[in-house]
Design brief:
Elements: E1 3-8, H1 12-31, E2 38-42, H2 46-56, H3 58-63, E3 68-71, H4 72-81, H5 88-110, E4 114-118, E5 123-126, E6 131-137, E7 148-152, H6 156-163, H7 175-190, E8 194-198, E9 217-219, E10 254-257, H8 266-274, E11 278-281, E12 291-292, E13 303-307, H9 312-321, E14 325-328, H10 336-348, E15 352-354, H11 359-384, H12 389-400
Parallel strand pairs: 1-2, 1-6, 2-3, 6-7, 7-8, 8-9, 10-11, 10-13, 11-12, 13-14, 14-15
Antiparallel strand pairs: 3-4, 4-5
C-alpha cells in the first residue's frame, strides 16, 4: 500500500481539514479505478484527537477500516513547535530556533520503517518508500520525504509579512523575530510542488493581492460536505438556512459556541439565558451550563449564531450553512492570522466582530448579513461550479501526482 502523509498547523481544524482532503483524494483515485492510499496523520493531541477523528470519520472508517493512521512520533515533534500552551510569540521563537533540527528529526523518522496506529488502536508498520506524497496546510516543519502539495487558507509568510505593516500595539510580536520567521516560512512554501489557496481565505479582502507563486490556484472552501444542499451550480442549489439535516431538527433555539480558545464572552453567555436561548458547545467543560452537540449541528435552523475564534473551518461552516458567525475581537498576543481573518470576514460581510455589543444587537447585525452571504456563496458556485473545495482540489492533485 502507498500512503498520503499530512502536515499541518496547530489546532483541531487543520488535522481535520487535511484528513478530509486526503479522503477526497482517495475518492478521486477510487473513481478512476486506482487503489486508495493509507492516510498518515500526526498524532498531536492524544486521545482527544483520536475521539474527534472517530466521530468525524465514522462512516469512512466503517467502509475503509485501517486506512486512517495516527503517527505519535510525528505528533510529538510537531507539538514542540505548536502554539497552544505556549504563547504565540514563544511558539514562533521555537519555530525560528528549532526549525532545522525538528525538520531533520521528522525526516529521519520518516526515512525508516515506522509504526502507526489505526483508529481502532491496531499497530501497522509503514515503509518509507511507500509514502507517495504529502498534503500540507500552513505547516511549521518540512518532512522532505515526498512531493508536498499545499492546500491552505493563507501563506504563513504572507501573514507575517503583513504584520510588519501593523502597529506594535495591534499585533504584539517582536518584529525582528517576525522577519526571521518570514524567511523560514518562505523556504517551506517554496518547497511545495502545488499551491492551492481557498477562497474566502485570510487575504480575500485584498482586491489588489497578487499570487505568491506562478502555479497558485484559487479553490472553494476546503471543509467536509456536511450539508445535503451544497451541490453544483448545474443542480441549481446553494445553501439556505432552512435546508438542514433532518436528524438535527429537534433541538431548542440556541447559540453554538465553538471552543478553540475564545475568552471574554462570558457576558454574552449570560444574555442567552435572559433571551431564553440554550447554549450548545463542542466543549461543555469550557462553557458551564452548555449542552454538548457536534459542530455538524451548526447547520440546524434552530442555531441562531455560532460564536468562535475566526479559524477558517469555523467561518466556512457558518458561511456554507447560513448560520450567522460572530468572532471575538482580536487579542494582540494571539496568532496574527486571526487579526487578518477578522478583518476579512468583516470586510466581506461574512460575520460580526464582538466588541461588547448586547446579544440582541449582535443578532440584528448578523441577520442583516444573511442575504449578503447567500449572494457570496452563489458567486462562488458560479466561479468554481461547486462549493466542495476538497473535491475540487482532489481532482487537481490527482492530475498532478
Amino acid at each position: 500500500m502507498q500512503y498520503i502523509i499530512t502536515n499541518f498547523v496547530y489546532g483541531t481544524g487543520p488535522y481535520l481539514r487535511t484528513t478530509e482532503l486526503a479522503i477526497a483524494i482517495n475518492n478521486e483515485f477510487d473513481g478512476r479505478g486506482k487503489e486508495k492510499m493509507g492516510i498518515i496523520v500526526p498524532w498531536v493531541y492524544g486521545e482527544k484527537q483520536k475521539r474527534i477523528m472517530l466521530e468525524e470519520f465514522e462512516s469512512y472508517e466503517e467502509k475503509n477500516p485501517g486506512l486512517i493512521l495516527l503517527d505519535p512520533m510525528l505528533g510529538a515533534t510537531l507539538q514542540k513547535v505548536f502554539y497552544g500552551e505556549k504563547s504565540y510569540e514563544e511558539a514562533l521563537r521555537i519555530f525560528v530556533e528549532q526549525f532545522d533540527m525538528l525538520s531533520k528529526e521528522e525526516h529521519e523518522h520518516l526515512s525508516r520503517n515506522f509504526d502507526v496506529f489505526d483508529l481502532q488502536g491496531n499497530k501497522h508498520t509503514v515503509r518509507s518508500a511507500d509514502i507517495a506524497f504529502e498534503i500540507n496546510r500552513a505547516p511549521r516543519i518540512c518532512y522532505n520525504i515526498a512531493p508536498a502539495y499545499s492546500v491552505t487558507f493563507g501563506y504563513v509568510s504572507e501573514i507575517l509579512q503583513s504584520v510588519l505593516d501593523v502597529p506594535q500595539e495591534t499585533v504584539a510580536l517582536d518584529r525582528a523575530l517576525v522577519k526571521q520567521a518570514i524567511a523560514i516560512a518562505e523556504k517551506i512554501e517554496a518547497s511545495h510542488v502545488f499551491h492551492a489557496l481557498a477562497h474566502p481565505g485570510t487575504f480575500s479582502f485584498k482586491k489588489d493581492r497578487m499570487p505568491r507563486f506562478s502555479d497558485e490556484i484559487l479553490i472553494p472552501p476546503t471543509i467536509a460536505n456536511i450539508l445535503p444542499n451544497i451541490g453544483k451550480i448545474t443542480e441549481g442549489v446553494y445553501p439556505v438556512k432552512n435546508s438542514v439535516q433532518t436528524e438535527t431538527s429537534e433541538i431548542s433555539n440556541g447559540i453554538y459556541v465553538t471552543i478553540t480558545g475564545i475568552p471574554g464572552l462570558e457576558r454574552l453567555y449570560e444574555e442567552t439565558r435572559k433571551l431564553g436561548l440554550k447554549l450548545y458547545s463542542n466543549d461543555t467543560k469550557a462553557i458551564p451550563g452548555s449542552e454538548y452537540l457536534s459542530p455538524h449541528y451548526i447547520s440546524n435552523q434552530n442555531i441562531k449564531l455560532q460564536f468562535a475564534r475566526s479559524g477558517w473551518g469555523s467561518v466556512w461552516l457558518s458561511q456554507l450553512s447560513g448560520t450567522p458567525f460572530v468572532a471575538p475581537n482580536f487579542d494582540p498576543k494571539d496568532d496574527p492570522e486571526i487579526y487578518f481573518n477578522n478583518k476579512c470576514i468583516e470586510k466581506l460581510g461574512l460575520g460580526v466582530i464582538y466588541r461588547g455589543q448586547s446579544l440582541a444587537e449582535i443578532i440584528r447585525e448578523a441577520e442583516k448579513l444573511k442575504a449578503r452571504i447567500q449572494n457570496f456563496n452563489h458567486k462562488l458556485l458560479e466561479q468554481f461550479g461547486t462549493l466542495n473545495g476538497n473535491e475540487y482540489a482532489a481532482k487537481k492533485i490527482v492530475e498532478n501526482v
